[in-house]
Structure formats: structure tokens, C-alpha cells
Design a protein that fits this description.
The complex is a heterodimer. By secondary structure, chain A is an all-alpha fold. In chain A, 70% of the residues lie in helices and 1% in strands. In chain A, α5 (91-103) packs antiparallel against α6 (109-116). The longest helix of chain A has 31 residues, at 15-45. The radius of gyration of chain A is 30 Å and the shape is elongated. By secondary structure, chain B is of the alpha/beta class. Chain B is globular and about 45 Å long. Classes of the chains: A mainly alpha, B alpha/beta. The interface between A and B is large, with 33 and 48 residues.
Chain lengths: 153, 162
């Protein structure tokens, strides 16, 4: 609408153009505010959406600070719960995370499978498809024979 | 001869190449924990046909109430392990069973708990030292495991030697 308004050279005192000017001003104001806080504007101008408003990271931090200060909620708990919810809705990322923890030696393969919501045989197939070849320890014959002598008399 | 308790990984390694008979020949009894049983049933449900052979090979060992409580305690102490590993360790403690696992985390916790275990390399070496397989047959078995279980047996030469 702004380019069309710009074509006008006269008639600015007519009701139509005054209404157009008012609308452009309103949209311009909304636009400039949206750069700062679009979620707030969405919330203020529209019907509540039930929590699907996208918030900037700075506002999320502010909200966590506010909840910590006034709501008695531990910020770490909020962040952990948010990450848990996020991973639960992104199963591939959860699988990637579980595999990474296993590859770093921080959890067992069975635990990785549990986290990913798979069975161990399924996870082994996933690793194979991704070209991840597992390796045994590579013990010496002496080590193995000593262990067998001890455990299988 | 010995009674053992196996995890899902070891059972699937031998199960998928249809060589669970080797575990039966090495040990008197092969037990599994309830959590391992549940996992195997789920695996069968999604199409792993070899689980049917596992079910004929192993015996399910239930947990008593005390063992359940001990499993909960160990699970909080060792969150890096799966529930099947935790239950297997509890049953190994109370029934004096040898654990079969190839997982490094599980082996470390097993050592901490003072449990005895055998991993895949040691199981394969036992097949050699107990003369249950010829060197050639064992080499073929290792090749099958490497191909179908996508696991490189680093101690292959050491297992086959002697």
C-alpha cells in the first residue's frame, strides 16, 4: 500500500487517503516494534495462541530470570526440562546424542539404546548403517588365557 | 562348567549368525535378566527373527523384591548402564553367575562390583582353548561376526594362536 500512497500528489485531506495514512502509520509502528519484540506484539494484537509464540533468546533468558526471582523456580531445572522436551520431540537428535555419548565412552551401548528408544539390536543396525564399526579391546593371548584360567577353571 | 548371565549384545552377536549353540557348549546354563528378556521380545516384534532361537537357548531369571531394590540402588549409582546390565549384575551377585558382556562401561562397573565377566574376545578364545572349534572354524566364526555384527575383532590373531 505504501508505494500506491506514494504515487498520490494531492487529495491528502480526503477521508480515503487520511485512512490510508493512518493505516500505514499503524503498520509502520507495528513493524518497528516487531523488530524489538514481535512476540509481544503478536500476543498483544492477536488472540492468545496457547503457548506457540516464538520468543527471542534474550526474552527467554529474561523469563527464566523472572521465574527464578519471583516464581521460586530453579533456572537449571527449567533449562534441563526444556532440553528434555526438545529432545523428546526431535527423536533423531536424541538418537544422535545417545550415540555421541556412547562413542565418547560415557554410557554403555544398552543405555544409548534406551535413551534413543531402541533395542540394542536396532541400535547396532543403526551404527552399521552409519558406517560405525565397533571394535573389541584387542587383548593379548596371555591376558585372555589368564582370565579364562581364573573364570573357567 | 559354569552358569552365566548374558546381555542383549552378546546374545545378538551369536544369535544373528545362528551360533548360540556355542554358548550352550561352553556353559552349563545361560540366564537372562527380565529387562533383557523384555528387550529381546521388542526386538523380535520389530523383525529380528534370531530372537526365537535365543528364547529356546536361555532361561529367564526373575528378580526378587530385594533384588529389585538393589537394582534401583545400582541404577542410581551407575546411570551410564542400561536396565538389562543393572539387573544382570544384581542377579550375578546373588546367584554367583559369570557375566557375558562386551561393553566397556559395563565391564568397568562389573570390575568395581567385584563381578567376573567374559567379553567377546575371551569367549572366542575359550572356544579355541576348550577345543570346541578348530582354528579354521574359529577363523570363519570371527569372519562371520565381523561381517554380520559389524564388529572388528582386534585380537583375532591372538585368539587363533597357540
Amino acid at each position: 500500500m505504501a508505494p500506491i500512497y506514494g504515487w498520490c500528489t494531492e487529495g491528502f485531506d480526503t477521508a480515503d487517503l487520511q485512512e490510508a495514512r493512518a493505516l500505514l502509520d499503524e503498520l509502520s509502528w507495528r513493524g518497528s516494534r516487531a523488530l524489538v519484540s514481535r512476540p509481544f506484539l503478536d500476543y498483544a494484537q492477536e488472540e492468545p495462541k496457547g503457548g506457540d509464540v516464538i520468543m527471542e533468546a534474550s526474552l527467554l533468558d529474561d523469563m527464566i530470570d523472572a521465574l527464578t526471582a519471583e516464581g521460586g523456580i530453579d533456572a537449571k531445572t527449567v533449562q534441563t526440562e526444556a532440553l528434555r522436551l526438545y529432545l523428546n520431540t526431535h527423536p533423531i537428535m536424541k538418537l544422535d546424542g545417545a550415540i555421541s555419548l556412547w562413542r565418547q565412552g560415557r554410557i554403555s551401548l544398552a543405555k544409548a539404546a534406551e535413551i534413543a528408544g531402541l533395542t540394542v539390536p536396532e541400535l547396532k543396525e543403526v551404527l552399521a548403517v552409519r558406517g560405525m564399526i565397533r571394535e573389541t579391546e584387542g587383548k593379548s593371548r596371555t591376558e585372555m588365557d589368564a582370565k579364562l584360567h581364573e573364570t573357567l577353571p | 562348567m559354569t552358569a552365566v548371565i548374558a546381555d542383549t549384545d552378546i546374545l545378538s552377536t551369536f544369535g544373528k549368525i545362528d551360533r548360540l549353540d556355542l554358548l550352550q557348549r561352553l556353559f552349563d546354563s545361560v540366564y537372562i535378566a527380565p529387562a533383557v528378556s523384555r528387550e529381546l521380545m521388542r526386538a523380535e516384534g520389530v523383525g529380528f527373527a534370531w530372537v526365537a532361537t535365543v528364547k529356546r537357548t536361555v532361561t529367564l531369571l526373575p528378580l526378587s523384591e530385594d533384588e529389585h531394590r538393589e537394582a534401583e540402588r545400582l541404577a542410581s549409582l551407575y546411570p551410564q548402564l542400561g536396565s538389562g546390565e543393572i539387573e544382570s549384575f544384581v542377579l550375578a551377585q546373588t546367584h554367583h553367575l559369570l557375566c557375558l558382556t562386551n561393553d566397556r562401561q559395563a565391564k568397568m562397573v562389573g570390575n568395581t562390583l567385584g563381578l567376573s565377566y567374559l567379553d567377546l574376545e575371551e569367549l572366542l578364545r575359550a572356544l579355541k582353548t576348550r577345543q570346541l572349534l578348530t582354528t579354521e572354524a574359529l577363523a570363519n566364526l570371527i569372519a562371520q561376526i565381523e561381517e554380520y555384527d559389524h564388529t572388528r575383532i582386534k585380537a583375532k590373531e591372538q585368539i587363533l594362536s597357540g
